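How it folds
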Amino acid sequence: MKTNNSSSFLRKMFGKFYTFDDLVSFMYLPKHPSSLGVIRIMFGLLMMLDLPEERGGADISIRYGNPQICHFPLMDFIKPLNYEYMSILYGIMWLGTIGITLGLQFRLSVLMFAVPYWYIFLLDKSFWNNHTYLYGLLTILLLGSSANHYCSLDGLFDKRIRNKPVPNWNYFILKFQFFMLYFLAGIKKSNWEWLEGYAMNNMGNHWVFIPFRLFLTPEQVDYLVIHWIGCIFDLTIGFLILLEFTRPVGIFLCSLFHLMNSRMFSIGLFPYVCLATLPLFCEEDWPEKLRAVITGRKAYEEQKKNVCSRDCSDERIRINWKRRLAVSLLLTHCALQTFLPFSHSITKGYNNWTNGLYGYSWDMMVHGWDTNLVVVKVVDNVSGQEYFLDSSAWTLNDRWNKHADMCVQYAQCVKKNLAAHNPEISKNISVYIDVWCSMNGRIQQRMFDPNYDLLKANWSVFNNVEWLLPLLSEYSGFREKISKLSEHVYSWSNSSDVVFISDFPDMSLENYVSPELRNVSLEILEGTVLFESQESEEVKVLNKGERKSMEVGKFHKIYTIGEKPSFFIYTYINSTKELTEQKETNGVKKLRYNMYSPFPLLEDVAHRISSFEKMMNHIYVGYQYLIKLAY
């Protein structure tokens, strides 16, 4: 009796599970080790390249050489080591990547890479990315695998494991992890914020979309291709590469997708890691089949017979407590990875306008941010003196200022640094932060209460952030109007610009109009404000629809009065930008989106070599320091 292809495929993939032991038997079915071995080699090589750049190996002295630098650990007790010891850790990681690639002392090598990796990962949330989290998970999964059974020095030295079949779970758990990578990203994109096309704009002009621009406008590419097709792709691609009869199409589309991403975004080696792991979804012995094309079919069949003569019988699968425990841990991992991206109702302290920290949620590029202003104010409560800090002081990136938990950590870091290096400021201080930003094309607005002392913050992982201001959703419908107004202002000249701002009742915005601007005007679109010039002492109430010309080189304040938020815009011409454009010869400019650089290998190689040399210099300094301590 014949069965259809789909049912036979499902039986092949998942078997028949009547009891837990049936599942254990399925997980321990012997599989050819060659595909897993190739994945191990590729992952080790890519992590070797990743260390100097995204892991910060070339910038160890910048990240850890200054004790004043603020770090944002997941748990406050995690502290950075000094520069020399951090350099040593990078050296250990680098040796670990070599061991992983060569399959030499495999589990020790994975540990040498994984332990420092997770320490550095947990040390600073402001550097978190989805792919950074993914790499960490892969190290955990590889640690328990038998990825050194094929094409490894361990197999060369120990004939007992050379080409020995590996348990099916070695493949199953990696397939699960990458399937969820795509599928969860698709679920995150299947909300109206993404599907309405506000998350990513102005990408349709990129050269990778030239084929689509034959029949679509750049705006249509943004909306249809990037947002809608992007969502459908993430939701379905995992099934396409999982099912045998759709796999060739799935692998082709997935390869094209990652190659395009590698050209559009600065996301390190993530596209290449995904490309390198695509063969996971092929037959486990594909490397040997490929070699058979070169060496002859007979050679492969003979080797396959030798490899499987002892271990490839299903009847030989033994069930014991160790294997039951291993499968239980695998299922726990699967459940945890399914639950964590939707755990925000528990970890409320990490929720801001978006849910959770960027990393484990797989909400890749779902939210587009535009930060206009960040004000950090320190008040000496003894003298009453106010001090304003550059928001980039003692930080390495600006991601911290849109997360309440990191704002609290930054305030504590500021207090520590001021106490150590500014004796004229008392230890009794308050730290306030005022963040003006826009999410997904909305109006610029405050994110946090600027009158909340972060040094007295009542923050908990499990409670809502009490100083977070709500997203002004009542003005979300203005995004289309914002787009049209922007186009109108941009049509004035190449140097004209517009800023859209909304503020809450009983709050005020202090602003300075730079002398490099001209034709500056303020227009009220919604609500009522009180305008106050701090130099001419002019005070004026402005209602909806009223406009006022602004004087340059002066400060002013805008108070929102009334019961509803205000919505106003500044329009201006940037004289500096205007002069710069006039100096362009014959109007020739290098447009980033129109530069044809599909594979800028020469530039990449030179940069990677430079980064590697810097990292090795840091590692050398660290080990020199260790030798001095020893003697």
